[in-house]
Amino acid sequence: MSGTPTLVSIYTDGSSRGNPGPGGYGAVLECQGYPSKEISGGFLRTTNNRMELLAVIQALKTLKRQNVSVVIYSDSKYVVDAVEKKWVFGWSKKGFVGKKNPDLWKEYLKLHAIFKPKFVWVKGHNNHPQNERCDKLAVAAAQQENLPKDLGFEAAENKNNSLF
Question: Which of 3, 19, 70, 90 is 20 to 30 A from 161 (CA-CA)?
Fold first, then answer.
């Protein structure tokens, strides 16, 4: 085996029916020589951006090896730009003050330190096969019955609605 790390391509998407509303995420992981893997999940009340970011987090958590090269394809400018333009690192230094989804960004940064993924933006709903599949997974996840609560979203929402 050569010294080149294995390349894992991850395709992600998030969905929210209402913003906030029921939401879901989907991801497809591909690596030459391995069967592709699909993951998805949904929540009772959340936002599209949370699901876009959670798709990335859950996909990275699925990887069983750390010595891989990861490229993430996403139609979320929110996620892609935050990482590729290095905004999230500045947000972190400032304690995420005034930023949404700090719980998920902190979780992402732990995984970023391990995998150092590269992000590629893809246009959504543009007949990109893996992106279309991720969209279907995310929408289906959001439509499931008995969805769990997105505790991170609810905690932030309760904090924002606090009188003091």
Answer: 90
Give the model confidence (pLDDT) of 123-132 as tens digits. 988 889 999 9
Does the annotation count 14 as an active-site position?
A: yes
Q: How far apart are CA 85 and CA 79, in angstroms?
A: 10
* Residue 157 known to be catalytic: no
Q: Of 13, 23, 26, 112, which one is the catalytic site residue?
A: 13
Domain 6-160, CATH homologous superfamily name and number: Ribonuclease H-like superfamily/Ribonuclease H (3.30.420.10)
**Mean per-residue pLDDT, 83-94:** 98
Residue 2 confidence (pLDDT): 53
Q: Is 135 a catalytic residue?
A: yes
Cα–Cα distance, 98 to 102 (Å, whole number): 9
> Residue 108 to residues 8, 105, 116: CA-CA distances in angstroms?
17, 5, 10
* 52 in active site: yes
Tens digits of residue pLDDT in 37-68: 999 999 999 999 999 999 999 999 999 999 99
Active-site choice (24, 52, 112, 150): 52
13 is an active site residue: yes
Active-site pick, 75, 107, 112, 150:
75
Structural domain boundaries in the chain: 6-160
150 is catalytic: no
Place of tokens 């391509």: 9
